[in-house]
Amino acid sequence: MASVDRNQWLPIEKLQKLQLLKFKKIINYAYNNSKFYKDKFTRAGIQPQDIKHKEDILRIPFTTKREVLENFPYSLLAKGYKLPNCHIESTSGSSGLKLTVAFDYKAKDFCDCVYGRALFAIGYKPWQPMAYFWPYCRHRKEFHEYLGLMKKNWISSDMKAEDQLEILLRLKPKIIYCFPSILIVMAKIIENSRSRYSFLKPELIVSHAELLTEESREYIEHIFGCSVYNEYGATEFGFRMAWECKERKGLHIDIDSVLIEFLRDGDPVKTGEKGEMVITGLVNYAMPLIRYQIGDIGTLSARKCACGRGLPLVEAIEGRKDDFIKLPSGKIVSPRALTPLIRKYKEVIEFKVVQKAKDRIYVYIVSSGVLPIDTVSKIKESLLGIINENVDIFIERVGELSRTERGKLQTVISEVNDK
Prior knowledge:
Blueprint: H1 2-7, H2 12-33, H3 35-44, H4 65-71, E1 87-90, E2 100-103, H5 105-121, E3 130-134, H6 143-146, E4 152-156, H7 161-171, E5 175-178, H8 180-192, E6 204-207, H9 214-224, E7 227-232, E8 242-243, E9 251-253, E10 258-264, E11 267-268, E12 274-281, E13 292-300, E14 313-320, E15 325-326, E16 332-333, H10 335-343, E17 348-357, E18 360-367, H11 373-387, E19 392-397, E20 412-414
Parallel strand pairs: 3-4, 3-5, 5-6, 6-7, 17-20, 18-19
Antiparallel strand pairs: 1-2, 7-8, 8-9, 9-14, 10-11, 10-12, 12-13, 13-14, 15-16, 17-18
């Protein structure tokens, strides 16, 4: 933990050298120990010694989710590793493909330290009780939990919000680790019953796994009375890849754990421009993942954080490529532009925007009681104002919305193939 903690304070130049060293090492290892990558490199006509600089990464072919699904475990698992001797995780399947990933235990320990680094950066103390929302409870405790450190009190993300709040009242946690969609539903219940939940006073909240807009953050902070910090990660790389410090001026990228490219049409974008994020893991030798197309869109920042950390910043994670609305003109609309227009109405508890065609969008809303016609009209009008094209919008009130197996709520989904 000590070395991982020290890394964040290194100058960016030293961190980049460390990252490049780790990158070359994992490339060489994958070529010599992973059949999948040996074959991929051979077909591309490259060898590890051809990768001398960070820019040479562009010579390496991408790895797709479909390839991981079809080649796990035998072609992807490195020589000397067997599944019973690895730590196994599965993705949520929010992209449409549920993947299994194997980690060597040294990599898992490193990722756990990265997870702790992000929490300690915002003031979390390891003896403080934590309420951790997840669709299932992990029964195997980590060693530090037996010592009473970083102990997670698991709360099912599949439970009704009222039941989740009752557990929170009983636990009185100092930190809540939760999906933003669940936090918003609970906040709306608290807002209508302030006196009942007056004893619920967390010191900080960590939002993860879903898109957190600034409007949602402000609302959650207003109701819960504490700061909300955003984290970004993926199961394929040990859950944590970028996180906010107390400055909250962007998310620090764990470049000692991952190498993230920001690309458009396969080429690097300029700093400050949106790009598709392509990720290489630097620590998992049981199952290396190189130039993995995760499907998210983000913007690399040129700013240096006032906190003094050398870890670079990503300005914002805009969401998955499939979360962007593709319009008839070719214009795309970020989910960040749409969700505040719907969420601001008190009667809206949850919602999902689904684009069925370039000129046809459906909005499914779970509301508290009847959804007023006036509210429906205002939502449609505001969405059309952003879209500003000839698109039909249909709004429907529903009893509940489908979530992923992990309990995530995808608020914006485009079923349009833009290729």
